[in-house]
Each structure stands twice: as structure tokens, then as C-alpha cells.
Write a structure and sequence with these properties.
By secondary structure, the chain is mostly beta strands. The chain contains four helices and 25 strands. The structure holds beta-D-fructofuranose.
Length: 424
């Protein structure tokens, strides 16, 4: 098997590498890159459902957009089952942790609206039951296309398979709220090809999901980021000198890190509408470092490309580690080369005393970072937890050159609009 550099060497752009040496610089609990402690007495957005990945309505340039003064977010959502015998423990008590851990299998796309950018009101499901072709509606991006309220929802149709799809509908507002209409015809766009991006046949634990379409501020073309793994049979990847990077003596052993093969994928649209896509080699790979670079997204600032992606402690490779949270990389042009922000890539991680307090961070162009609450310890030892399934406090962050700094904390689920579109 080839190293990442050998594999993509002949392609128009070379993926940038997040190396083991970069990851060795990750420091948990650095206050400038650590999310403030989330209190265990957090409010719950809605007691009937769990919500996790949050997707603010935005335009193709990345700006979070309200319509007629209404902010709109989409969330991955699953019913809570406090009375379902399946989720009662031996004593007849609701086993919320098991219910929460099972949520991915029944994830559906819901929407919420607000006049204030917080205290979200329940909208409902975006697509009616039966519209989406597979069991799971996984993360993606809702794009407001124009002032007629047309919305393209890009998302991932999962199980069977994993297909990047899109469905078009319309946002309609009244004085009292927001509704989503249409969203009736799901169009498959593409799947992993097995040549650049790993397929299910190559690895049962493959990742291929989380589309994030955008217009490149420099060339004006329509592209899409997504999460992938580097193609090849599981276990066949080679962690070579380039993937290792410049490590100190004693750090050359890569252990079993060949099993961790995450990448940030990119595709370019062949048409203006984004119905026809061509996959390109990944922008960034993490072979030998980490197995998941989820929900990749950009902030375009100061003429630079700030690439953010979420990852977990449990997906790190042998010999490297870091907190659950959002990691970042920066380049002067779309195809790189990308260098890790803050030296290591870590931008906003959970504190080690509450390693699962939040996840699925989304960095907005105004420096605000939204995420959801996963679980927060309720005792000193950390043996008792309270499950979230709701919005976390928003964090304010400054992005300066090659560094980022936590500078503020806001209310739970605070996602203010950056611009408002008056619908015609
Ligand atoms: C991130 C994530 C996404 C995926 C979804 C599945 O939290 O793993 O990558 O689309 O959750 O529930």
C-alpha cells in the first residue's frame, strides 16, 4: 500500500497532512482552547426529543441568515423514550443513556425558529416520513438560495450505504412562526468511490458524510466539503515519514495507527445548481492520526481559508490523543497547503474534567461556536452523569492568523443571524 503522498502525488493538488508530530502538540486544558465548564443544571430545549448536530440556515458564502426576522436552525433529532419498556432498566427506571446512545439509528432532520437567535421554538420534521430513501437522516447543511425562500438541504442518507443527497424546499414565514414546505424529492449526488474515498466494502467502519457546500470567495465556483476516510482496504494504509512528521527520538513507533485514516473531502460542482458533482482528492488527511474528521466547514477571513472539523478522543490513533472538540487548519488558498491552527490543530476542546460535555462544534464567521451537550458529570468522581441532547452555551472565539483564542461565553444555543433576508 502507498503512503498518502504516493497515493495522491500525481493529482492536481496534494492533500495537506495532519501529522502525528502536529498531534503531539495537542494540550488539553489550555484555557485559550478549552470550552468553559458546562454546568449540570443546564436547561433542556425540548423534553420529547434529543437534539445533537445543529445546522444554522446560511447562504453559500457561509453567513448565518435569518428570514423576515426569523432565525432558523436544523438539528439531527430523535424521540426520547421515557416510557418505552425497551429503555427501562431492571428497576423500571428510564435508562436515558442507552436511549441517547441509540439515537444515531433513528436520526431525523428537524427545524426550529426564533426571533432572538435563542430559545428555539419547535418547527417539526423537514421531510415527511418516507421521503428520505434510507433509515437515517444524518448531518448536512441547509442553504437559503434566494429571496423567494428556496432552500437546498444537503445531507447524508445513511443505512443502507451512505449517500450525499439534496432535497429542495422553501421556507415560509408568518407573524407567528416559520414552516418548511416542499422537501419532497431527494436527489442522490454521490457516494464514496473506493479510489480516493474509502467505501463500506473496504472498511465496515468507513465514514462518508456531512456535506458542506460553499462558494469559494476567490474563484466564485461552487464546492462542497465532506467527511471521508482515505480509500483502501482497512489495515492496508501506510503511515510513512510524511504522516509521522518531525517527531522527537522515541516517537517513531506508529503502533497500529494505520487503522486511523480520516480525511476532509472536497467536490466541485459541474453546474450552477449543484446537481452534478465531481469528487476531488481530499484537502486534508489524518492517516496515522485520527479516524474521524467530521462536519468539516470553513470560515473565510482575512483572505484566508480557515478549515474546521470535529473529532473525538476515541478516534485518535495509537500514541496520540486529544479532547473531543473542534480542530482547525488554515491556508492562503482553497487547495492548501493547510497548517494546523495553534500548532496542533486543537481549537476548542472539552476540559479533561468533563470530557464528554459537548460535541459537534460549528464555527460561524462571526467567531461564535455552537455545539450540543452530550453528558455532564453530576458528582465529583464523574461516575454519575446527566445526558444532554440539547444546545450547549455558545462560545465566542477570536481567530487571529495562525491562532485562536476563547474570549466569551453566551447563552445556550445562541446563534444570532449575520444577515436578514426579506422574502418577496
Ligand atoms: C457528528 C456526527 C455526524 C453524523 C451524525 C450522526 O456528531 O457523527 O458526523 O452525520 O453525527 O448522528
Amino acid at each position: 500500500m502507498k503512503t498518502t503522498t504516493e497515493k495522491f502525488g500525481a493529482t492536481p493538488h496534494q492533500p495537506s497532512l495532519w501529522t502525528r508530530a502536529d498531534a503531539l502538540k495537542v494540550r488539553a486544558d489550555d484555557p485559550t482552547t478549552t470550552q468553559p465548564l458546562v454546568s449540570a443544571d443546564f436547561p433542556v430545549l425540548n423534553n420529547d426529543v434529543f437534539i445533537w448536530d445543529t445546522m444554522p440556515l446560511r447562504d453559500l458564502d457561509g453567513n448565518v441568515t435569518s428570514v423576515d426576522g426569523w432565525s432558523v436552525i436544523f438539528t439531527l433529532t430523535a424521540d426520547r423514550h421515557p416510557n418505552d419498556p425497551q429503555y427501562l432498566d431492571e428497576d423500571g427506571n428510564y435508562d436515558i443513556l442507552r436511549d441517547w446512545n441509540d439515537r444515531h439509528g433513528r436520526a431525523k432532520m428537524y427545524y426550529w425558529f426564533s426571533r432572538t437567535g435563542k430559545n428555539w421554538e419547535f418547527g417539526g420534521r423537514v421531510m415527511a416520513e418516507g421521503v428520505s430513501p434510507t433509515a437515517r437522516e444524518w448531518a448536512g447543511t441547509p442553504i437559503l438560495l434566494n429571496d423567494r425562500g428556496e432552500v437546498d438541504l444537503y445531507y447524508t442518507a445513511v443505512t443502507p450505504g451512505a449517500t450525499i443527497v439534496k432535497v429542495r424546499g422553501r421556507v415560509v414565514t408568518t407573524e407567528h412562526g416559520v414552516s418548511m414546505v416542499g422537501f419532497e424529492k431527494v436527489k442522490p449526488l454521490f457516494e464514496a468511490d473506493g479510489n480516493m474515498y474509502q467505501t463500506e466494502a473496504q472498511n465496515a467502519f468507513w465514514g462518508f458524510r456531512d456535506p458542506w457546500p460553499f462558494r469559494d470567495p476567490k474563484d466564485g465556483k461552487l464546492y462542497m466539503l465532506f467527511e471521508g476516510n482515505v480509500a483502501g482496504e482497512r489495515g492496508s494504509h501506510k503511515v510513512g515519514e510524511a504522516e509521522i512528521g518531525d517527531v522527537p527520538p522515541g516517537y517513531e513507533d506508529v503502533g497500529n495507527s494505520r487503522y486511523q485514516t480520516a480525511c476532509v473531502g472536497i467536490a466541485v460542482a459541474r453546474d450552477a445548481d449543484g446537481d452534478d458533482w465531481e469528487m476531488l482528492p481530499p484537502l486534508l488527511t489524518a492517516v496515522g492520526v485520527n479516524d474521524q474528521t467530521e462536519r468539516p466547514h470553513f470560515v473565510f477571513q482575512d483572505g484566508k481559508y480557515y478549515l474546521f472539523t470535529i473529532s473525538h478522543t476515541f478516534t485518535y490513533a495509537d500514541g496520540v490523543t486529544g479532547p473531543d472538540g473542534v480542530y482547525g487548519f488554515v491556508a492562503d488558498s482553497l487547495f492548501g497547503p493547510y497548517v494546523p491552527l495553534n500548532g496542533s490543530g486543537l481549537v476548542l476542546g472539552n476540559p479533561s474534567s468533563q470530557p464528554f460535555q459537548t460535541y459537534s462544534h460549528y464555527v460561524m464567521p462571526n467567531g461564535l461556536v455552537t455545539s450540543f451537550i452530550d453528558s455532564v458529570p453530576t458528582d465529583e468522581a464523574g461516575t454519575q452523569i446527566r445526558v444532554g441532547g440539547t444546545e450547549a452555551p455558545t462560545v465566542g472565539m477570536k481567530i487571529k492568523g495562525l491562532q485562536t483564542f476563547v474570549v466569551a461565553e453566551y447563552d445556550y444555543g445562541y446563534i444570532p443571524p449575520m444577515l436578514d433576508v426579506t422574502l418577496k
